[in-house]
What does this fold into?
Amino acid sequence: MKQWYQIKGNRPLEGAVTISGAKNAAVAVVPASILAGECCILENLPCIDDVNTLKDILCKMGAKATFTPGDCMQIDPTGINRFSVTFDMVGTLRASYYLLGALLGRYGYAELALPGGCVIGPRPIDQHIKGMRALGAEIVLENGIVKATAKKLKGAEVYFDVVSVGATINVMLAAVLAEGQTTLVNAAKEPHVVDVANFLNMMGGRVKGAGTDIIRISGVNKLHGCSYAIIPDQIEAGTFMVAAAATGGDVIIKNIIPTHLEAISAKLMESGATVIEGDDGREFYIQVIGNDRPRAINIKTLPYPGFPTDLQQPMMAYLSTAKGNSIIVENIFEERFNHVGELIRMGAVITLSGRTAMIEGVKQLTGAPLYATDLRAGAALIVAALSARGVSNIHNIEFIDRGYEHIAKKLTALGAQIKRCTE
Ligand code: EPZ
It folds into this structure.
């Protein structure tokens, strides 16, 4: 059944929005619960397709898992009796690779069908494999399936050739029950890496240094169940901050961790928006007040704490109507400009050269029929449509449903004219 978002743009977003749990923490913490020998209760998980897909995979493997959105997910991994994750189970879930580290760490065996490539780049897993081999696993990749076996994983030093969120987390999952000390060098420092380390420690793991580029893991014999609430979503929060600025609105974004948003706050302020951090005694919030047109700025995406690649696309939509020329360099992924063609159809003037985009600001974009190509491209099209004059219809919104919980409802509450249409 075809569905699309219809957005009538050119209206400022006003009011308050509460941020959901972080997708990129959730898709790691759910598989990580396999490592416990007991039941785990996970709170603040966003109700998005990626989380539901992972729950379904765990159930097909023999675990018991129930998810009450807005409440918690209860996972009892003790019944797991299948250690191979097939193509039909994985679907388009990119983050299914965390099942490899979790199954290998807990059972010493895993077979994982790799999901197909993704439009933002080939998404290799050579660093994941390098780390697991260093721990003593034997890994074979054939027919699109990774087979990992290890009699006993032994701690080792792993130097990552590139800073990789996925590899850092995946090798951490494999190492937490390994014998002896593991040191991850050149580790990723993203907030969700720290969140997974905290979850492992809540289960009795001994992970130190997460959030720095050296993580030390002392293997333990066993992990126990626990209750854990994941962090709020840095990228969802950043998306709403950009949307507020792009529509010249005034939005309070609640349930955030300000340090996670420093790069995006700095860039929005540099572009002329007002960003105010505060706390109402219960939770932190950030207020973003846009102005009529942003100033042009330059952005380079980098690993955390640099400007996040996941916000490059929404930011480009925002800078399409800046006064002057902006330059965006995408240093993380090879092909993360698939939204550019769609923005150009709305009147944006953007030229690409390799990983560099030059955006010549125009006064205003105009609505058009649009096609999302990936999750954050979809977010970029929503930002563009909200600020554009006229009506836009955004198709392929299943990409957006993978990573943004109730986005239409949240935007409607901020005064946006957005509706989900069904053929
Ligand atoms: C995670 O992807 C996120 N996904 C991505 O978010 C995010 O853009 C990315 O980290 C960077 O922050 C999840 O957390 C589920 P990487 P991941 O490994 O782990 C190269 C979203 O929109 N690389 O940090 O796949 C890789 O090609 C998604 O929420 C290797 O060369 O990213 C890329 O160029 C999109 N070999 C760079 O490293 C490897 O073994 C960073 O990738 C692994 C990665």
User: Anything to note?
Assistant: The chain has two domains: 3-15+233-422, 25-227. Residues 23-24, 27, 94-95, 121, 123-128, 162, 164-167, 188, 190, 309-310, 332-333, 375-376, 403 surround EPZ (CB under 6 Å). The longest strand covers residues 3-8. The chain has 14 helices and 24 strands.
